[in-house]
Amino acid sequence: MSQAPKYKRILLKLSGEALMGDDSYGINRATIERIVQEVKSVVDLGVQVAVVIGGGNIFRGVAPAAAGMDRATADYMGMLATVMNALALQDAMRHAGIVSRVQSALTIQQVAEPYIRGKAIQYLEESKVVIFGAGTGNPFFTTDTAAALRGMEVGADIVLKATKVDGVYTDDPKKNPDAVRYHTLTFDEAIGRNLKVMDATAFALCRDQKMNLCVFSIFKQGALKRVVLGEDEGTLVHC
Ligand SMILES: Nc1ncnc2c1ncn2[C@@H]1O[C@H](COP(=O)(O)OP(=O)(O)OP(=O)(O)O)[C@@H](O)[C@H]1O
Ligand SMILES: O=c1ccn([C@@H]2O[C@H](COP(=O)(O)O)[C@@H](O)[C@H]2O)c(=O)[nH]1
Fold it and tell me: Which residues form the Aspartate/glutamate/uridylate kinase domain (predicted)?
């Protein structure tokens, strides 16, 4: 029996740091290939996939050099890091037989198409994966906010944050072993309890535009597909 996806179009926020795998910096080939297979599993269901990629795997590596720098300059470096990840992701997708397009919020015309909303939507309708690089194109923001923004712009049914933990917890589970995972919670609860899994701007944008969000682990095999099929996976954050 074929499985019917719950969502027709998704905005997938992929953690930059997740691309490192067990390395301390950069892109681990086997890890990116595994992540691409997870994406392929939902593309094969006929789901339209837009991706916003983070930059923590590269930007964390240059952070010491950025210390003491002008904040906006450091943020532009961070956005450029996400463009590198977008290109690596596109390359890995091509090897896996997925047709994708990279659009950058910063103009780097020799490297990537500029972000054009209508064109992105057209690609999605043609079943091409669209990878958004350079976040929002503005300093003082994050790729989480870019995910919320682009998700709304392309009319995604939900924003899926694929990260290193398997949901939203009462506290950072990497620091507090007693933290307990939420099954669901509201955006007001997430903001009011100052939960750091996503920045407050992104939470507020999703809340104000009534865009549901699911946080799940990209390292858990099959988790993305289970979320897309509407099965019990990760944490749903809703209005
Ligand atoms: N209440 C919480 N519940 C779950 N995770 C939390 C919480 N508070 C903090 N975290 C941390 O937030 C991290 C995920 O967000 P973060 O923005 O650091 O990474 P990302 O967006 O996945 O990566 P990148 O910035 O590289 O794209 C988790 O790895 C977890 O350690
Ligand atoms: O809209 C944006 C998105 C990102 N940045 C900068 O890039 C890095 C990496 O992004 P992550 O969301 O942390 O993965 C971020 O720390 C910012 O410095 C930005 O300025 N604007």
Answer: 8-217
Whether residue 140 is annotated as binding a ligand: the answer is: yes
pLDDT tens-digit readout, 81-109? 999 999 999 999 999 999 999 999 999 99
Which residue in this structure is represented by tokens 């996400």? 82
Exposed/middle/buried for residue 64 (C-beta within 10 Å: 0-12, 13-18, 19+)? exposed
Provide the sign of the torsion angle of the four alpha carbons 92, 2, 163, 23, taken in this order.
negative
Domains in the chain, CATH or no CATH each: 9-168+189-238 (3.40.1160.10)
Ligand found nearest the CA of 142: 2
pLDDT band at 133 (very low <50, low <70, confident <90, very high): very high
196 CA → ligand 1 middle, Å = 7
Q: How many angstroms does the Cα of residue 134 sit away from the middle of ligand 2? A: 8
Give the residue among 120, 107, 5 at the shortest CA–CA distance from 52. 120
> Tens digits of per-residue pLDDT, 10-64?
999 999 999 999 999 999 999 999 999 999 999 999 999 999 999 999 987 777 7
Residue nearest to atom 5 of ligand 1 (CA): 197
The reply to whether ligand 2 has any atom less than 6 angstroms from the CB of 75 is yes
